[in-house]
Amino acid sequence: MIRSFFQRKFYVLTSLYTFTVFVSNDSFLPAIPDIAHYFGFADGDYGTVQLGVSAFLWLTMAFQLIAGPLSDRFGRRPTLLLGALLFIVANSMVTFAPSVGWFLFWRAVTGLSICAIFAAGFATINEYYTNVDAIKALGLSATIVIFAPMVGPVIGLALMKIGGWKFTFWANSLFMVFIFALLHRYMPETRKLAENGSTPSLRQNIWAIFKMSRERDFLLISISSAFSGAAFLVWITAGVSMLCSNLGLSEAEFVLYNIPVMLSLMLGNFLSAYITKDITKTVYRMMFCSSSLIPLFVFLGYIQVHNQLSSEVTIFTHLSAPILFIVPMALFSFFRGILNPPLTQFILNKQNTNKGSASSFMSFIGIIGSITGATVAASLSGAGNNAYYYTISTFILFALFFFLLAERSAKRNLLTS
């Protein structure tokens, strides 16, 4: 019975893999003071150890374009199993680090396990399941990524109370050993070989990514997805400034008001499979639903720059200003949550072969979009909150623009073929 369940729904295992990897990046946060003290830093001097959070992503983007070709060359199973094994070794070696430099090094190596999720996990889901089941699986994975930062620090604090900061890392490694065993036993190999049964070399698979970069439809739709992600990253990066600095909320109030935004994203991911009957139509609708919020974000920026919410916009005088600003962001999060799984499936469906490379390349572009959103938001510090809302509007508009360009290109190719 267990064997039958995991063989039919192996995406539960890939989701557990995803959960463990992302929880590991948040579970050691409560232990940062203890880790800093362990490496000889003075009380309050946590900056270097805190780099362990970002170090987790240092190598991810660099190796993302290698993981996909590895998945296409050697298979989905070996790639994901290698990612799990790499996590187990690197995450365990963190506890043996003789210096903070080695601590950061092993944290960076641990982050490489993320590459396997995109290169092998997403590709396997796309190849193995029908569109509806694939969207359900991708939605579950996306929900877990959002949920992990919420529960990670709580789990980490509990583990630290049991056995100290090193036990936090050992517990994550042990759980990954359990997942590794299940993946080894139940994960199918879905990589499709060429018609003659041959397997392209690693060099040919790497070259396939460069070919994808010249495929107009695939590239444009991936860029569209990246801009949508960039819009959300502006909120993630600058939300504290947008609500605390301008509206006078405390950090605790910001956390409270941020809950609807994150829950909306999770709800959208969860409902995506049940809402999506036709992938193309769902992607169209959610793109336009997101774009319909642009005037509202621009209006909020106007209110911010003129500071006339109470005096001139009388229709809103009985509403709490923070709620007025949270609602459109929660709506955008909900639309993005619904959009993400079918859009991922939509992009991967455009590639008949090299799904691993396609998934990695799509994720690589998405990471660039996230970095762009976070960097732009950080650079706007002190420019006024209206700049944040205008930036969100601009990124959403770019997402729609590149999506329409991709669809126009696809229709043109269809007519000429």
Overall 3D form: globular
Helicity level, as a percent range?
Answer: over 70%
The total of beta strands comes to: 0
CATH top level class name of the largest domain: Mainly Alpha
The N- and C-terminal alpha carbons lie at a distance of: 48 Å
Quick recap:
This is Putative multidrug resistance protein. By secondary structure, the chain is mostly helical.
Keyword list:
Growth Hormone, Chain: A; 417 residues; transmembrane helix; 2 domains; globular; mainly alpha
Could you explain how this protein is built, in words?
With about 425 residues, the protein is mostly helical. The chain has two domains: about 1-190, MFS general substrate transporter like domains (Growth Hormone, Chain: A); about 210-415, Up-down Bundle (Growth Hormone, Chain: A), CATH 1.20.1250. The chain is built from 18 helices and no strands. The termini are far apart. The model is unreliable at about 310-320 (pLDDT under 50).
